[in-house]
Amino acid sequence: MKRLAVAFLVFISLALMGCGSNSSSSSNVDGNWNATLMSGGNQTVFTFGTSLKVNGDGSLSVSNFSFTTNSPCFVSDETESGSFTLSGNFNGMVNGKFGFTVQSGSPAGNTLALSGTANGNTISGTWTLTGSSSCTGNGTFTMTKV
Predict the structure, then answer these.
(1) Most buried of 4, 19, 48, 102, CB within 10 angstroms?
(2) Residues 37-68: pLDDT tens digits?
(3) CATH number of the 22-145 domain
(4) How far is Cα 110 from Cα 104, in angstroms, rounded to an integer?
(5) CB 132 within 8 A of CB 107
C-alpha cells in the first residue's frame, strides 16, 4: 500500500511540474506582426504592422503600430490595446484567444475591433469597424509574424 501511495505522489508531483504561468509560455506572440483585413467581398480593407508583447496579466503592450493603407477613418493619433489568453503551448507554438482594438484619434469616434485565435505564427479571426456612417464594416483578418 505504501508503494502505491509513493507512486501516486511521484505521479502528481511530475504532473504539477508541467504547470506554469502565462507570462513565459506566450513568448512567441511577442514580436512584429503584419495584418491584412479583408471584407466579405474578399477585398483588402486595411493593412497594418505592429509590435506586440504579452504582459503577465494577459494584456498586450502595443508599439510601432502603423496602418499601411490610407483610410479616412484613421488619419492620426490612434490608440491600440489588446489581450491574449493562452490555451496551450505545443512544442513552442502558442495557441490562444486574441483580442485587439484600435481607437481613432482623428477623426474621433471610430473603433476597429479584432477577435481571433493565435496558432503559432498566425493569428486569424473576424474584425468589426464601428463609428461614423462612412466608417463601418466587418470581415476576416489574418496576422502573420515577421
Answers:
(1) 102
(2) 999 888 999 999 999 999 989 999 999 999 99
(3) 2.40.128.30
(4) 5
(5) yes
